[in-house]
Prior knowledge:
The structure is a single chain. By secondary structure, the protein is mainly alpha-helical. The protein has helices spanning about 1-25, 35-40, 45-50, 60-65, 70-80, 105-115, 120-125, 130-140; strands at about 55, 85-90, 95-100. Helices cover about 65% and strands about 10% of the residues. The chain is elongated, with a radius of gyration of 20 Å. The protein starts with a helix and ends with a helix.
Amino acid sequence: xxxxxxxxxxxxxxxxxxxxxxxxxxxxxxxxxxxxxxxxxxxxxxxxxxxxxxxxxxxxxxxxxxxxxxxxxxxxxxxxxxxxxxxxxxxxxxxxxxxxxxxxxxxxxxxxxxxxxxxxxxxxxxxxxxxxxxxxxxxxxxx
Length: 143
């Protein structure tokens, strides 16, 4: 009985790898990667810019990026150098630094959001039935 379970898990793992290989080939690199290249943004800076829909603390950014707070300093430095973000002290505790978008950063952020919400051709080209099935599968997978 243990052997059948192992075979099922092995086949499931193979199917999972195949599914991920197909999916990752469709989503990486996504169309918005061109925007990141155009702005000369590394993935971590790009991710930070995307999450700054509202001011965030350095530690919130570190948590979201799954990195050390000290890494966020360099990321924010690069965004500041490009004029996309700025640091300011938090009102309740001036030791805490908030990162917020500049006017230019808000323009770029809006552009990124538009790019993220537009389905790529491989999704748009599917039938409504296939789009619904894909949506339902992804909902279950992310639950």
